Amino acid sequence: MTIKTPKSVLTLIETCTNLQQLKQIHAKSIIFSLSYTQFVITKIISSFLSHECLDYAKQVFDQTQEPDGFIYNAMIKAYSSSQTPLVAISIYNRMRARQNNLGDNYTYPFVFKACGSQFAVEKGKEVHGVVVRIGYELDGFLQSSLLNFYMVCGETGNAQKVFDEFGLKDVVFWNALITGYARLGMVLDAFWFFKEMLEVKEVRPNEGTMTGLIAACIESKNLKLGREIHGYMMKDVGLRKGVKLESALINLYVKCGCLDGARKSFDKIPDKNTVVWNSLICGYCQIGTLNEVMELLREMHLSNLKPDRFTISSVVSACAHMGAFNLGNWVHRFAEKNGIWDIFIGTALIDMYAKCGFIEAAREVFNQMNERNVASWNAILSGYASHGQAETAIELFSEMRESGVRPDSITFLAVLHACAHSGLVENGKWYFDLMVKYYMIPPRVEHYGCMVDLLGRAGLLQEAKVLIKMMAVEPNVMVWGALLSACSIHGNTEIGEWAADQMFELNAMDAGSYVSLANLYASARRFDKVKAVREMMVGKGICKSRGCSMIEIGDVVHEFVVADKMHPRSEEIYLVLDELSKKLKMAGYVPLLALEEG
To answer: Are residues 308 and 337 in contact, defined by beta-carbon separation less than 8 angstroms?
Structure first.
């Protein structure tokens, strides 16, 4: 169909199947001067929003002379749920300023949502005042959105006032208050209002109520209260127990360390779908019981249900955490064989292979990915950084920029980490400036920690001290620890004592920090200070944490700690270690034991 009239534009948009076609239709409508009628503009903007192409929709919106209320509402709604909710507030401000448009009862719920996500309390209160002036205080959906805004921002007093002043409260209104308290970690308050709700005959708790309460119990690890809520659910025969609620219950027991309870809840579900299976599998993944995970995967397969992308990515992430290469590699092959793949699985596999020491396999997965997002780039960059391959990480960072993917704070953390571990001081400084001045990403304490580590390793301790004094955020134990460790290596007692003093003030001195301080004094041959540090450690009952390592043999992960004799083959292991120690001594190796000197 050719584009000749506004109606033909609307018809083409209706039959449009992808974003590229939509852009072509829009371009032709501009060429033929057909994109300026209100119906066409509204349809074009709505279509771009439905394709989640917010930036393009915003460009069209900005060029529209007099958007109507529908367009304003559509834009505010879309941006309120986006990663840039401030844009929703900006559009609302434009609506009020340019056209003195007060909006309607569909406008304000999403303005409150945007304010809540940005913790814009004062702006939200200002909008609340507008709502009162124009008489929308009786709209239930709008008022529950207002209540939710106050709860999200921790303004429980104002939220309670909105709740008390509203007349006919439905279950959505009650849920906004109960789940609001639950999200704030005020579990007992949430449970108290739940009991109050039970006293109201006109309202009954629904799945949303129970899911919110269970989520609060999970967050607070309150298994006792969670069981009480579970008991109520069992008694309430009218309560719909959907997949979300059943999964939340399983998650409650798993997170609280009650695997029997999780398994019993799981076994009682008659028709288990993939979501329910995922809840139990992911729960076992989180606590690192990979043998049980494998067994669950087999059970799931026997029940004629295939693991989905979420299952695979969760299991792969658990393998990365445990260093279980063989199992992770098996899951990778299983996913390939069954056509289970997406960008999240690819990213998880990159992370898993890198953490298990197989950076070449991680790169192979990365190269095979047709689509890469910032998380994919971050995974491979972090992998190369942790493997000490800074030059490759830097080359990949350049490729990332050229590909059009915008780096985020995690990207720069990986690059700075790579520079720190390879001694690339000037490169590190340049990337830090690039992050701050070009990409306008405010440095977090982790970025400063990397920079202090970078400068400290290079012996630029005075420069590291100046950087700490200029930090835009409060230094934490990571920053002071990096400086203290560097001072211990380079023997700078003055700055090292300054760093230790700051850690003492933060009450953040751990065993490793005490050891670094003692080693610093030992290198300066101030053995009286070494003795004082030792006595301080003994007096506070602090001892150095025993080292821990894991190795995977035959799909089983074996964990060892220093002086461990619990392993069934410990005698054989110690015989091998003794033999290795003898060979090391014969080769001339002498261990550095600075803390024991003097």
So the answer is: no
Q: Which letter does DSSP use for residue 438 in this model?
A: I
Between 186 and 40, the more confident residue is 186
Confidence of residue 99 (pLDDT cuts 50, 70, 90): low
Q: Are 418 and 385 in contact (CB under 8 A)?
A: yes
The first and second tokens of residue 451, run together, are: 């920079």
User: Ramachandran region of residue 185, left (φ > 0), alpha (ψ -120 to 50) or beta?
Assistant: left
Q: How much is the pLDDT for 385?
A: 95
Nearest to 261 by CA among 216, 231, 220: 231
* Closest to 344 measured CA to CA, from 362, 369, 326, 364: 369
pLDDT averaged over every residue in the chain: 84
Residue 182: CB atoms within 10 Å: 28
What is the sign of the dihedral through the CA atoms of 60, 62, 63 and 69? positive
The CA R_g of the chain, rounded to the nearest whole Å, is 30
Report the run of H or E that residue 15 belongs to, with start and end. helix 6-15
**Number of C-alpha atoms within 13 angstroms, CB side, residue 175?**
18
Residue 256 pLDDT > 90: no
The structure tokens listed for 491 are 């023997």
Beta pairing, strands 556-561 & 548-553: antiparallel
Residues 152-206 have pLDDT tens digits of: 999 999 999 999 988 888 888 898 999 899 888 888 898 899 889 888 878 888 8
- DSSP string of 302-363, one letter each residue: HTT----HHHHHHHHHHHHHHT-HHHHHHHHHHHHHTT---HHHHHHHHHHHHHTT-HHHHH
d(CA 183, CA 587): 60
CB 276 within 8 A of CB 250: yes
